[in-house]
Write a structure and sequence with these properties.
77% of the residues lie in helices and 0% in strands. The protein is mostly helical. Helix 2 crosses helix 9, helix 3 crosses helix 6 and helix 9 packs antiparallel against helix 12. The longest helix is centred in the first third of the chain and has 29 residues. It starts with a helix and ends in a 9-residue tail after the last helix.
């Protein structure tokens, strides 16, 4: 067992964790921003934008990866523009991992944040306005704390999705050991190569991470809720 562990290249785990946390930060702020924006829009506009923002949640990740690849490919105008003017390359880089994971994780953060905002008592907002508080101050001091458990759950779910992302990441960032190979990509690669022992090891690792995240969701969601018997 010690020999097996000594031969393991741990870079997929570190890349997955780095990617997951970076993507979660991006999804967190974008999710809150768009959740707040959508709630201020008229019903028709709200429905259209909500559908666009939720698309990555229902599309196969490979479809999202294909669209991102078309967007950031060096053979496409936008990808070439980024490289020529800012020396930024997305395809087959760690930046590609983060962007792909952010796109896939974003809808979970957005949907949870919007649901949490919708549960905020409007009387609290009205009370803040009567006290002369600005909309920004009301949002950060009244709405955000009240919607805290829902936002926290969305953040943890986004983290879990970002760490486990495979389809879009493999298409946009590729499978470069020590650079873009995440745990999910490593599982697929080792299985394709017939290295079932190594693939099984990474499966156990991702199962442990998933369990910890699910437990965290349960703890966060349970805080502040009165648990009583229903029978």
């Amino acid at each position: 067992m010690s020999e097996f562990l000594a031969e393991i290249n741990w870079s997929p785990l570190w890349i997955s964790l780095k990617t997951g946390f970076a993507a979660t930060v991006i999804a967190f702020f974008l999710g809150i921003f768009f959740a707040r924006l959508v709630m201020k829009m008229k019903p028709v506009s709200r429905g259209i934008l909500d559908g666009i923002l939720t698309m990555p949640l229902v599309l196969p990740p490979t479809v999202a990866g294909f669209i991102l690849l078309l967007l950031f490919s060096l053979r496409r105008p936008f990808g070439a523009f980024l490289l020529d003017n800012f020396d930024i390359k997305i395809v087959q880089t760690w930046k590609g991992c983060v962007i792909a994971a952010s796109v896939i994780a974003f809808p979970l953060m957005y949907r949870n944040a919007r649901a949490a905002f919708e549960q905020v008592d409007v009387n609290l907002i009205a009370a803040g306005k009567t006290l002369g508080m600005s909309d920004r101050r009301i949002f950060w001091t009244v709405v955000m704390p009240t919607a805290g458990p829902g936002i926290a759950s969305g953040t943890v779910l986004a983290l879990a999705r970002a760490i486990g992302e495979y389809g879009a990441t493999s298409m946009l960032a590729g499978n470069i050991l020590g650079k873009t190979r995440t745990v999910s990509v490593a599982i697929a690669s080792e299985t394709a190569a017939g290295n079932y022992g190594m693939a099984g090891f990474w499966v156990v690792v991702i199962l442990i991470i998933s369990f910890v995240i699910v437990a965290a969701i349960n703890i966060v969601s349970g805080k502040g809720m009165k648990m009583g018997r229903w029978m």
